[in-house]
Sequence to fold (98 residues):
Amino acid sequence: MSDLELERSLLELADTCRVDELGEFTSLLAQRYARLLSVTGAAVLLTDAAGRIEVQAAFPEQLAVLPHQAVAHGAGPAVECCRTAIPVTVPDVRLVTR
Fold:
């Protein structure tokens, strides 16, 4: 499956999600992405029409503080990814300059 096909599939899936299921859906999405990509953690961030970023879910829960801090400071891999729509890989988040 190509990246574009995966993206379209996920968007279609998200379009079928009811608002009252959004938290459960995004939590499952973060969990599955972390496993699919064989990474330590993943987060789901959404932007509104004004471009404001909001953290919807993170996996595992212990790492949830990282995307929240990034959004609060307006910088970091998660924020960069949301702004550019380009995947950002951080081999070791402990080595990222603050």
